Amino acid sequence: MRAAIRMEILKTKGRKIWLVVAVMMGVQMLWAGWAISNKDANDLVQGWLFFLYQFPMLNCIIMPVIAAVVASRLCEVEHKGQTFKLLETIVPANRIFDAKFIWGSIYMFGAALGQVAIMIGMGLMLHFGGPVPWGALGGYLFFTLAVSLTIYAFQQVVSMLFANQMVPMTLGLVGGFIGLFSMFFPQGFQKFILWSYYGVLMQVGMNWDQNTRAIDFYWTVIDWSGFVLLFVFFGLIYGIGRILFVRREV
Amino acid sequence: MSNVIETEGLSKEYGNVYRVKDVDLLVPEGAIYGFLGPNGAGKSTTLKMVLGLAKPTAGEISVFGKRVNSKNRLENLKNVGSLIESPSYYGHLTGAENLQIFQTLRGVPKQNIDEVLKIVRLDNQKNKKVSQYSLGMKQRLGLASALLGYPKLLILDEPTNGLDPAGIQEMRELIQSLPKKFGMTVVVSSHLLSEIDQLATRVGIIREGELVYQDSLMKLHQYSQQHLAVRTMNNEVTKSFLSQNGVDWEVQDDYLIIPQMKDSMMAEISKVLGQNNIGLVRIEERKKSLEDIFLELTGTAVSL
Chain B: residue nearest A78 by CA? Predict the structure, then answer.
């Protein structure tokens, strides 16, 4: 397996996948900067909560795009060069699938870690109220990664099964938008949509007083049932996708 | 001589159509086995099944005397190199990097990369991106990938497809040198009769999924031996006369086709026919070309 992962790294040489992740992080940083720029000192007291509320919402569109692009870039080289028919005479197909997933996960981890770094950097720079909420940021990293890896698994399955990468790219974008708009629907409904789990697993809630037009953020109880359901989603997508990849004929 | 590949009743059904049906392939050790057939006859499907890239609907496959199943497939393929349909490569990487990937995954020594690059004469182009290679160079790189582990069996599916005449000649010379240099058994598929004729020592001809001929190339050439075509004023009586005298015949249009024979024997036949008032109007020497045999076996116009 180690050799297979090392070769995945070699295959990405010159593919500029980290650049895609960096650009998306740049977009997220610009958005965060813009969102926080019109906040006064009172608002900044709740700065950490604000970020931990806003970032997952933005992730509904940002992370699926990253997952779709990364998976597509990693799998496209195999389709273009028709390499599966050679690789599968050397290593088991399931190992190819696993190695690609592990290497793709590194990019997703990098993106999630980058977001946490942006939050900490901006929080310290703008002197958000209170100490750095390491526990909540750790939770954010964990849940963001859990949702992102599930979405990435979905993207990888589609990217590996379809030679035409427009299919997974379109699905990724459509999924992201569905996830974003699902925020307007009840949480029971959100749980059926993979891309809306960034919202389901948020640690922060928001109250908006219509009369005073004041926004107040508060810590919520983590929806562990949602997390379990996400885990089931992951198992099904990864398991079924892997079987489909292994069984298909080259 | 033992067989490196043996299949028994190998079949593949897509939908309700058999692409490959009851194929009993026998590839002897050390041979260059030419797998010949028109496009779409089932050559690639058969070879893919041998490599485990397609699952047979029915039948058994043995490679190196071991029956192949999903569990031992890769273990068996350790001594098999393959190039199926078109070369597999990563266009954004150099030739050497491409081979490094397959060398690492195969777990063979790194020095093999330089050696196989020399064999396929790509050692001067190894640091060039494969996307900049010509089709011939890509084919040679594909062959280099297949050779990396110095396999005992090399399966090459249409390795000269798309190459110009010089490239075809070069590839042919390369393939021909392999059994002598490395003791490999080579299976080469092609729809080109002339190519197989120049390369192979043993031939399998497949038509619409069925193996219609399998033997040495020499034997196939024997089919093209000269024979005589005779036409008489009464072929029916001539037939019985020939049969009585133990001469094999077959009817072809208005002619009776009989084996080549001594002049004295032919003179005797014409004399007896004359005595029986059967006019002998034509005696022609005919020879079946290899193309005619291929056409007979495959029912398809030969590609040249």
Answer: B90
CATH code at B249?
A: 3.30.70.2040
Residues in A closer than 8 angstroms to B102, CB to CB, are 86, 90
Interface contact A87-B104, CB threshold 8 A:
no
Q: What is the predicted ipTM?
A: 0.84
Amino acid identity of residue B254, one-letter, is: D
Three-state secondary structure call for residue B185: strand
Structure tokens at A107: 């990019």
* A2 vs B: CB within 8 A: no
Clarify whether residues B158 and B233 are in a common domain: no
**Cα distances (angstroms) measured from residue B91 to each of A39, A241, B34:** 50, 27, 30
What are B26-77's pLDDT values in tens digits? 999 989 999 998 888 899 999 999 999 999 999 999 999 999 888 888 988 8
Q: In this complex, how many residue pairs, one in chain A and one in chain B, have their CB atoms less than 8 Å apart? A: 74
Structure tokens at A137: 């940021």
B293 domain residue, yes or no: no
A90 lies in which domain range? Answer: 2-247
Q: What is the CATH number of the domain that holds B133?
A: 3.40.50.300
Distance from CA of A7 to the nearest CA of B (A): 6
Of B186, B221, B256, the one marking the end of a domain is: B221
**Cβ separation of B91 and A7 shorter than 8 Å?**
no
